[in-house]
Write a structure and sequence with these properties.
It contains 7 helices and 5 strands, in the order αααββββααβαα. The protein is α+β, with helices and mostly antiparallel strands. The longest helix is centred in the middle third of the chain and has 31 residues, at 158-188. The N and C termini lie far apart (79 Å).
C-alpha cells in the first residue's frame, strides 16, 4: 500500500497523470470546442442563408450608421436652437439711436438690440445678428398656457408652429428607433433588423422636410398678419442643419434598404461577363 502512494506521488510530481485524468480533460476541451464550432457553423449558416451579416456587410452597415448618426446629431442641433428665421425691420423702427432685430425657432424667441451707429450706413435694415448687442430671449407659451406673443406688432401662427414642432419630435423619435435597430443588427448579427431601420430613417427624413415646409408656412403667415411694418426675413443656420440632417437620414435609410436585399443590386443590374480563356 505504501508503494502505491509513492508511485502516485511520483506521477503527480513528474506530470504523468493517469489515463482517466487525461480523458476527462480531453472530454472537457472537446465539449467547449464543439460548442465554439457549433456557434461558428451556425453563424456561417445564417450568413449563407441570407439571414446573417457577413464581415464585409458589417463594415458597410457601420459606415452607413455613421452617416445616420451624423444626421441625428444635426437634427438635435437644429431642433434645440432658435436660429430658424431672422427678422430685421428698418433701422428707424425702434428709435434713432438703437434698432431691434429678432430670431426664433420652435421653442424660443430672441430679440437683439443694436446701436444704429454700429450698422453700415448704406444698409436700411437692422442687423445682422452677428453684431454685438443686447439679447433677450423668452420661451413660447404655446405649449403651457396657450398664450401667443406679439413681435413687431405681429403674432406668429400658433397652430403651424406647434405642428412643425410635433413633426420634428416624431422625426427624432424615429431616428432613435432606427439607431436601436441597427445596434441590434450589428450586435446580434441578424439582418432582419435592417428592414425596420431603413423604414424608420426614411420616414424620419420625410417628416423633417414636412416640418420645414410647415414652419416656412408659419413664417409667411406671421409676416402677413400685419402689413404696416415691413420686415426682411431670412431662414437661418438651424434650418440648414435640419435640411442636411433630413438628406443624410434618407440616404442612410436607402442604403440600409439596399444592404437588406437578399442579392446585390449592382450584380443584378450589371452582371459580370465571365469569359473562358
Amino acid at each position: 500500500m505504501w508503494s502505491t502512494f509513492i508511485v502516485q506521488d511520483e506521477e503527480v510530481r513528474t506530470g504523468t497523470a493517469p489515463a482517466g485524468v487525461h480523458q476527462g480533460s480531453g472530454g472537457l476541451e472537446g465539449l467547449m470546442g464543439s460548442r465554439s464550432d457549433g456557434r461558428k457553423r451556425r453563424l456561417r449558416t445564417l450568413s449563407s442563408s441570407g439571414k446573417g451579416i457577413s464581415e464585409s456587410q458589417e463594415g458597410k452597415i457601420k459606415l452607413t450608421f455613421f452617416m445616420a448618426v451624423t444626421g441625428i446629431m444635426l437634427t438635435v442641433l437644429g431642433v434645440g436652437t432658435e436660429f430658424w428665421v431672422e427678422l430685421t425691420p428698418s433701422k428707424r423702427f425702434h428709435n434713432n439711436q438703437t434698432c431691434l432685430a429678432a430670431h426664433y425657432g420652435l421653442w424660443k424667441c430672441c430679440t437683439k438690440t443694436f446701436w444704429v451707429s454700429d450698422i453700415d450706413s448704406k444698409q436700411e435694415s437692422c442687423g445682422p445678428l452677428d453684431l454685438q448687442g443686447e439679447s433677450n430671449c423668452t420661451f413660447f407659451k404655446f405649449y403651457t398656457t396657450g398664450e401667443n406673443i406679439v413681435l413687431f406688432q405681429k403674432t406668429p401662427e400658433k397652430d403651424l408652429t406647434v405642428a412643425s414642432a410635433m413633426f420634428a419630435i416624431f422625426s427624432l423619435s424615429l431616428m432613435v428607433m432606427g439607431a436601436v435597430c441597427i445596434i441590434m443588427a450589428v450586435s446580434k448579427g441578424v439582418q432582419f433588423f435592417l428592414k425596420p431601420a431603413c423604414v424608420c430613417f426614411i420616414l424620419s427624413g420625410v417628416l423633417i422636410f414636412i416640418c420645414l415646409i410647415v414652419f416656412h408656412q408659419s413664417v409667411l403667415s406671421f409676416l402677413a398678419s400685419d402689413q404696416s411694418i415691413p420686415l426682411h426675413h431670412k431662414m437661418s443656420w438651424s434650418v440648414t442643419c435640419l435640411g442636411c440632417a433630413g438628406a443624410l437620414v434618407v440616404v442612410a435609410g436607402t442604403l440600409f434598404l439596399v444592404l437588406a436585399l437578399p442579392y446585390s443590386p449592382w450584380e443584378k443590374c450589371l452582371p459580370k461577363n465571365n469569359s473562358d480563356i
